[in-house]
Each structure stands twice: as structure tokens, then as C-alpha cells.
Amino acid sequence: MASIKPTPDLRPARLNALGEFAASIAHEVKQPLAAITLNARAGLQWLDQDPPRLEEARAALRIVLEASMAATGMVRSLHGMACQTAPQRATFVVNDVVRDVLQLLRAELRLQCIGVTEDYGPDYQLNADRVQLMQVIMNLVLNAIEALKDIHDRPRTLALRTAIDGGALCVSVADNGAGIPAALAERIFDPLFSTKPGGTGMGLAICRSIAQAHGGCLRSGDARPHGAVFHLSFKEYTLWTPSRS
Ligand SMILES: Nc1ncnc2c1ncn2[C@@H]1O[C@H](COP(=O)(O)OP(=O)(O)OP(=O)(O)O)[C@@H](O)[C@H]1O
Ligand SMILES: [Mg+2]
Q1: Measuring CA to CA, which residue among 139, 145, 144, 164 is closest to residue 237?
Q2: Is residue 20 in contact with ligand 1, taking CB distance under 6 Å?
Q3: What is the number of the ligand 1 atom nearest to the C-alpha of 201?
Q4: Residue 111 shares a structural domain with residue 36
Q5: In the 8-state DSSP scheme, what is residue 84?
Q6: What residues does the Histidine kinase domain cover (predicted)?
Q7: Do the beta carbons of residue 77 and residue 63 sit within 8 Å?
């Protein structure tokens, strides 16, 4: 009788991959959905005023549109990552993406009393997937906001910086929270690793794989005198120059 070879049980691996994919989608759309709800509600309130505050309602609706486009783009980009398709590259100015992220999170930053410092270098361009870069910066800023929630004895600060550092284009996101314990410095990038109740632990794993898919890297460090700093860097970049036409 022919022997029957036991087939390896692929289910746990598949389930894990599916679990990580589902966790990634849940993670990435959470923030844009929150921005949509908040701004749609604000828009209705502006319209209900007598007389209706049309300019404010229009501004709220513009954010609803941007956030829903961001969510759609993020789902597409995660799907692309899961299917291992190449990032959809275009050339854009990195400073603009940082500003777009801050615009989407402005209400939350204000609500949490976080003072934001922006320090932009010249308008360097990346040839990369813009939505994915936005995802990375948004996740880093959201982590900073969460790290600052426990800080009550000093003003909460978030510092965003773009610069050329060691020949690479670098975006840094620093907060003055409690920082990252040395023992966790590498584990924080593992999928599903989280120290937060209810955290999916997918944010930094997604960020690092996006950086690497673009030939870049993402590192964490200590901010001075308190807090954590994340450096996202890319070796290949160009300087934006106004077209002469
Ligand atoms: N700015 C920061 N300051 C201190 N610790 C941080 C910071 N950013 C990330 N971490 C640590 O890294 C861990 C992993 O972060 P990651 O974004 O991957 O998941 P999460 O934030 O825990 O969960 P989720 O993103 O689903 O809310 C966090 O749980 C936290 O311990
Ligand atoms: Mg996170």
C-alpha cells in the first residue's frame, strides 16, 4: 500500500498572515475614520447654525474628503503589500506629506494640548508611494500622541524635522514622552508587539516594511532630555526645482 505522506498543516501560518492583514487594515483605517466622523459631525453643526456657517462647513467637508481618500489609499496600499506588488511610485516633495499628516491630525493634537514644532529643510523629493509614506508618518505621529497621554508634569511636545543627515533624506518625529525602554528597542518593530491595552502592535511593523520596500530604513532612538525619536531615511532623493516653463 502506498504510504500517505502527512501534509504540513498550513492553517496556523495562513491564519497568522490573515490575522496580521486584518489587524493592519483595522489599524490603518482607524484614524481616517475617526477624522471623518469628527469632521462630518462638525460640518453638520456648522450648517445647523442660524445663519449657517458655510465656510467652516466647507473646511470640515474638505477634511472628510481628504480622510476618506487617505483611507481608500491605505487599504489599496496594504492590499498591494500583502500581494507583494511593487509600491506605486510618483515623485513628490516630502515636506508636503508631513504637512498633510499634520493637517489631518491637527484637531487631535490641539485636543491633547500638544505643542508642535516643524523644522523643514529644503523641498527634497522622493520617488516613492506617497500614500505609504503618509501612512508611516501618520503612524509615527499617532504613537507620539499616545506616548504623550501620560505626561502631565511638563508641556507635551512633538517635533517634526526634515533634513539631510549622513547623505540621506531624513524625516524625524520626536516626542517628549517617557521614551522606549532599551530592552524593547528592537522588539517594538515586531508585528503584533504592543505595550498598550487594545494596541494591535502593527503600526511600526507596517512602517518598517514600507521603509524597506523603498530602500529606506526606520530607526528609533532616545530624544533629549525625554522621549523617543524615530528617524525615517532614504538614500535616494532629488531637490525640487521650480519648472521654467
Ligand atoms: N513614541 C513612542 N514612545 C514610546 N514608545 C513607543 C513610541 N512609539 C512606539 N512605542 C512602543 O512601540 C510599541 C509598538 O508600536 P506600534 O505602533 O507597532 O503598536 P501600538 O502603538 O502598540 O499599537 P497600535 O498602533 O495598534 O495602536 C508600542 O506599544 C510602544 O510600546
Ligand atoms: Mg501604534
Answers
A1: 164
A2: no
A3: 19
A4: no
A5: T
A6: 24-238
A7: no
**Tens digit of pLDDT for each residue in 179-229?**
999 999 989 999 989 999 988 888 999 999 899 989 999 999 999 999 999
Classified as helix, coil or strand, 209 is helix
Q: Indicate which CATH number applies to the domain containing 102.
A: 3.30.565.10
Query: Given the DSSP bridges, would you call strands 168-175 and 156-165 parallel, antiparallel or unpaired?
Result: antiparallel
Distance 75 CA to ligand 2 centre (A): 17
Please name the residue that has the C-alpha cell 449657517.
52
Of 73-82, 90-99, 125-134, 221-230, give the lowest mean pLDDT range.
73-82
**Could you say which of 51, 82, 113 is where a domain stops?**
82
Does one domain contain both 230 and 119?
Answer: yes
Element of type H or E holding 115 = strand 114-119
Same domain, 227 and 200: yes
Residue 3 lies in a domain: no
Taking the centre of ligand 2 as the mean of its atom positions, its distance from the CA of residue 31, in whole angstroms, is: 11
- State which residues form the domain around 24: 11-82
pLDDT 10s digits, 92-117:
999 999 999 998 888 889 999 999 99
CA of 88 from ligand 1 middle (Å) equals 27
CA distances to 55, 159, 239 from 138, in Å: 27, 13, 23
Q: Is residue 195 part of a domain?
A: yes
